[in-house]
Amino acid sequence: MKQPLAYVHPAAKLAPGVVVDPFVTIDQNVEIGEGTRIGSNVTILEGTRIGKNCTIFPGAVVGAIPQDLKFNGEDTLAIIGDNTTLREFVTVNRGTAARGRTVVGSNTLIMAYSHVAHDCIVGDNVIISNATQLAGEVIVDDYAVIGGGSLVHQFCHIGAHVMLQGGALVNKDIPPFVKAAREPISYTGINSVGLRRRNFSSETIREIQEIYRYLYMNGMNISEAIERIEEELPATKERDEILQFVRNSKRGVITLRNG
Q: Does the annotation count 159 as an active-site position?
């Protein structure tokens, strides 16, 4: 259903049941899945793909060209998964030649005034709180929770099930299952509350804690800790996920800050 005061380009593809409120602009080369609602004064630009049953609140802009001086008009996308909510004045830019797409997953909530820059990959079931700013090519894995007003440097990687304090300045990678806080951003423990809410067993949580004791509490450098973990701790899905994340980190992982 389209209000008469909205503009929808004739080449845009809107599935049945899409609701478009007044003063919306929807450009060409846009696809929107069934059951999605587009609030008033939303702008959806070329190259946007929005899934089913999403809610886009007033003032949001999805699919604007990247704020990257290297962008040269290439054909790229901004993709929003199913059941995702973008609150007021959220901005999601489309990709550049680097990845070709910016992706926000399914069942994700991005709160008001937040920005997702070019080529970011935001996973499923993520919560990004108000006024958070993700720079280009940031990765946020599934079930991460980012506190309001956080600033995330380009190329950083935030792991799955991370809990990040509000107002954080993130310039290092944050490995999965942890809490990160303070300035500079540091490891502050396991996100045990979040893990219990997601039905991780007490045994699994204890195993994750033991892995991070090796990484952060035993006075070893990262290479030594990884070697000891592989030698002394049993292989599990979570252990291997943590080790792979740390090994693949390009910016280096956060450290433990004393005091």
A: no
